[in-house]
Design the sequence.
C-alpha cells in the first residue's frame, strides 16, 4: 500500500460524502500501512472524525500531529507499535484497542491511562482498575521525587549554577528514585522525569495538584470460615471449577512467628514481614470463594547479563482457570490470564530473543502454564496475550519446567506417565510458535516434580514421582528418542522408602538435592555426585544421605518444597498453614560424620491470626512456597485461595 489519498479516505469513510470534513468514521484496516503512509496534512482535513480503525496494518509509530482532536474511538490492534506517547494528541479518546501489538508492555498500558483522562475502555475492557493503579503509582512517585528534590536542594552549594543544578537533579531523580516492579520501570522512570522537570520548572518542592490524585478507597475482603481436611491433586479429585479475579487487601496486621535462632545456635532467624494477602484467583471475583486451590508459583527470572539464576520481584501464580502475575512489592496484579474450563497446575518462565519485521531484536519474557486439559499455553506476559498453545498430552499435565541452558526446551510431565521434552522454538513474524517434540521419557508412575541435574542439566533429568525418585538420560545426541527410566533412587530407613511417593524435589546447590515424601515427617538432603558415583551398572541405587530435616508428621501429600541456593535455604509448607524454613549452610559445610537425628527448622512462619484476615478460622494448607533468589520476597499458595507474600527486612 502506498501513501493515502483523499479518494481512498472518501471511499472508506462514513457517512458517505464528497468532503473529508464531513466524515465521522474511517476504516483503514488491513491495508498494510506503514507509519510513513499516515500523512498529517491529509488526515488533519478530517475535522469531524470521531472513529478511526487502523488495525491489521504494519504501523510501528503514530505520527505526532495528525490533527484529529475530536477522535473518540481508535482501533490499532495487530500492528507493530512500540510506543504510545503519541496518543496524547487525542485528548477526547474514550475507547482504544491495542491488542496484538507484541512490543507494547504493561508500562505502556499505564502510560495510556495517564495520557488519556477520558479513556473508558481499553481492548474492550473497563479501564478503571488501570486508572487506580496509575493513581497509586503516581502518588507514591510524586512523594518520592519531592523528597528527593528537598534533599537535593538542601545539599546544593550557593556557587553551583542554577541551570546545571536543575539538570543534575533530573538526572539523579531518574537514576535514584525507584518504586514498583522492574516490569513497570519504563513507566515509573518516565513519570519520574516528568515530575522532576515540573519541579525544576516551578522552582519549589511541590507539583501541580492535578498530578496528585485523591487516594482511592482500599479494597476489602471478608473471608468466611472454612476447614479443608485434605489436599489433593489426583486427577480424580480435581474439580472442573471456574476461577477467580478478586484481589484481597494488604494485611499489615498479620502476625509471623519464628524461633529467634537457628538450630545450631548461630544462625539468626530471618526477619520476615507479612506484606500482602491476595484473592486474585476467586470465582466471579467473590471474596467468599475459599475453595479454589492454588498449586504453583514461580518468580520471573532477572534476565540481565551476568545474572544467571537470579529472579525478580515478579511472581506468577496458578490455580483454578487463572494465571496471575503479581508484583510482590506493591501487591498489584500486573496481568491475569483466564482459560474457561481449565485447571492450572504448573507454571514456568523463560526468555526468548525475537526479531521484528523491521529487524529489531526484542527480549520476550514467556510464561508457560499447563494443567487439566493437557495443553501448554505460552503467555507473552508484558503484552498480555496467549501467543501459542501446545497440545502436549491427552491427559492432565502435573508439572513442567524449562531447561536452564536451552531457553526453548520445555519438559512436560503428565498423568499419562510420560515426560516429553519440547523445543517450543522462537515465534515467527506473525508471533506464532511451531513446537517440536524432541524426547519421550516413559515412567512407571506419574511424575510430580521435574528437576534437571544442576551440574549437568543437558545430560540428566530427575523426577519425583508417585512411585519414587527416577532419573533419565536426556542427551539429544543419542539416537533413541523414547527412553525408559535409567535409575531409580531409593532412600534409607527414616526417609523415603523404595516405591514411596516423592512430591518434593529441588537442588540446594550444584550437588546437594532436597527431597520429600509423604507421611514420614522428614526432608532428606543427599549428594547427587556421591550417589551417582556409587551406581556402577545398577538400575536401583541407594542415595548417599547427608542430613535429614525435621518436618510435619502429616500423612497428607503434595506439599511442594523449594530451595533458594544463593541463601542455602530450603522451604516447605504444611497442613496447618505454616512455612518451614531451614538454613542448611552449616549442615553443608559440616565434615563427616553428620548428625543422625533430623535437624529442626531454623524458623517456622505461622499463619496470620484470623482477625488480620477478617476470617474466624486459622486453618489453611500451604501447598507451595517459593522465595526469589535474594530471599527479599517469599510467596506462599494455599488450598483456600489465598496468595500470601512476605518481605524480608534486612538487618
Sequence:
Amino acid at each position: 500500500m502506498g501513501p493515502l489519498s483523499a479518494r481512498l479516505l472518501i471511499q472508506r469513510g462514513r457517512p458517505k460524502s464528497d468532503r473529508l470534513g464531513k466524515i465521522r468514521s474511517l476504516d483503514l484496516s488491513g491495508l498494510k500501512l506503514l507509519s510513513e503512509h499516515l500523512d498529517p496534512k491529509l488526515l488533519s482535513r478530517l475535522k469531524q472524525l470521531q472513529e478511526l480503525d487502523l488495525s491489521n496494518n504494519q504501523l510501528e509509530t503514530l505520527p505526532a500531529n495528525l490533527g484529529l482532536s475530536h477522535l473518540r474511538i481508535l482501533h490499532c490492534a495487530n500492528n507493530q507499535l512500540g510506543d504510545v506517547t503519541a496518543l496524547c494528541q487525542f485528548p477526547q479518546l474514550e475507547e482504544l484497542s491495542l491488542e496484538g501489538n507484541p512490543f507494547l508492555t504493561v508500562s505502556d498500558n499505564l502510560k495510556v491511562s495517564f495520557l488519556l483522562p477520558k479513556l473508558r475502555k481499553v481492548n474492550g475492557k473497563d479501564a478503571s482498575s488501570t486508572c487506580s493503579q496509575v493513581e497509586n503509582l503516581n502518588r507514591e512517585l510524586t512523594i518520592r521525587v519531592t523528597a528527593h528534590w528537598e534533599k537535593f536542594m538542601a545539599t546544593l552549594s550557593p556557587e553551583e549554577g542554577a541551570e546545571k543544578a536543575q539538570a543534575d537533579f533530573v538526572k539523579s531523580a531518574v537514576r535514584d528514585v525507584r518504586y514498583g516492579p522492574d516490569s513497570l520501570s519504563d513507566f515509573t522512570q518516565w513519570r519520574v522525569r516528568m515530575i522532576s522537570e515540573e519541579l525544576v520548572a516551578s522552582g519549589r518542592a511541590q507539583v501541580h495538584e492535578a498530578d496528585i490524585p485523591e487516594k482511592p478507597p482500599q479494597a476489602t475482603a471478608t473471608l468466611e470460615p472454612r476447614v479443608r481436611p485434605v489436599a489433593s491433586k489426583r486427577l480424580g479429585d480435581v474439580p472442573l471449577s471456574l476461577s477467580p479475579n478478586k484481589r484481597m487487601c494488604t494485611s499489615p496486621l498479620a502476625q509471623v512467628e519464628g524461633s529467634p535462632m537457628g538450630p545450631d545456635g548461630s544462625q539468626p532467624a530471618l526477619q520476615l514481614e507479612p506484606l500482602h494477602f491476595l484473592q486474585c484467583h476467586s470465582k466471579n471475583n467473590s471474596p467468599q470463594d475459599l475453595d479454589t486451590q492454588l498449586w504453583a508459583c514461580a518468580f520471573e527470572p532477572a534476565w540481565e547479563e551476568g545474572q544467571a539464576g537470579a529472579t525478580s520481584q515478579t511472581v506468577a501464580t496458578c490455580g483454578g482457570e487463572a494465571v496471575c502475575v503479581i508484583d510482590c512489592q506493591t501487591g498489584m496484579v500486573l496481568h491475569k490470564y483466564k482459560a474457561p474450563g481449565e485447571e492450572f497446575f504448573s507454571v514456568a518462565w523463560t526468555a526468548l530473543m525475537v526479531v521484528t519485521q523491521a529487524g529489531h531484536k526484542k527480549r520476550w519474557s514467556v510464561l508457560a502454564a499447563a494443567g487439566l486439559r493437557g495443553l501448554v499455553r505460552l503467555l507473552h506476559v508484558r503484552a498480555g496475550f496467549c501467543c501459542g498453545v501446545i497440545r502436549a498430552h491427552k491427559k492432565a499435565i502435573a508439572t513442567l519446567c524449562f531447561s536452564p541452558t536451552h531457553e526453548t526446551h520445555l519438559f512436560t510431565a503428565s498423568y499419562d506417565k510420560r515426560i516429553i521434552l519440547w523445543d517450543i522454538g522462537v515465534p515467527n513474524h506473525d508471533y506464532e510458535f511451531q513446537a517440536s517434540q524432541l524426547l519421550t521419557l516413559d515412567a512407571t508412575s506419574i511424575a510430580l516434580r521435574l528437576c534437571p541435574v544442576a551440574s549437568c542439566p543437558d545430560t540428566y533429568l530427575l523426577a519425583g514421582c508417585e512411585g519414587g525418585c527416577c532419573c533419565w538420560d536426556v542427551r539429544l545426541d543419542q539416537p533413541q528418542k523414547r527412553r525408559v527410566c535409567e535409575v531409580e533412587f531409593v532412600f534409607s530407613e527414616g526417609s523415603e522408602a523404595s516405591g514411596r511417593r516423592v512430591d518434593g524435589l529441588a537442588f540446594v546447590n550444584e550437588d546437594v538435592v532436597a527431597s520429600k515424601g509423604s507421611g514420614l515427617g522428614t526432608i532428606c538432603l543427599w549428594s547427587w555426585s556421591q550417589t551417582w558415583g556409587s551406581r556402577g551398572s545398577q538400575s536401583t541405587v541407594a542415595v548417599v544421605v547427608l542430613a535429614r530435616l525435621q518436618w510435619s508428621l502429616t500423612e497428607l501429600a503434595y506439599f511442594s518444597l523449594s530451595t533458594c541456593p544463593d541463601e542455602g535455604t530450603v522451604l516447605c509448607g504444611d497442613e496447618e498453614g505454616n512455612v518451614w524454613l531451614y538454613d542448611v549452610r552449616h549442615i553443608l559445610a559440616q565434615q563427616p560424620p553428620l548428625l543422625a537425628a533430623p535437624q529442626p527448622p531454623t524458623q517456622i512462619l505461622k499463619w496470620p491470626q484470623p482477625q488480620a484476615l477478617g476470617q474466624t478460622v486459622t486453618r489453611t494448607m500451604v501447598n507451595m512456597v517459593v522465595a526469589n533468589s535474594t530471599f527479599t520476597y517469599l510467596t506462599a499458595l494455599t488450598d483456600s485461595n489465598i496468595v500470601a507474600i512476605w518481605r524480608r527486612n534486612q538487618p
Q: What stands out?
A: Residues 204-266, 493-497 have pLDDT under 50 and may be disordered. The domain at 272-648 is CATH 2.130.10.10 (Methylamine Dehydrogenase; Chain H). The chain has three domains: 6-123, 130-202, 272-648. The longest strand covers residues 344-355.
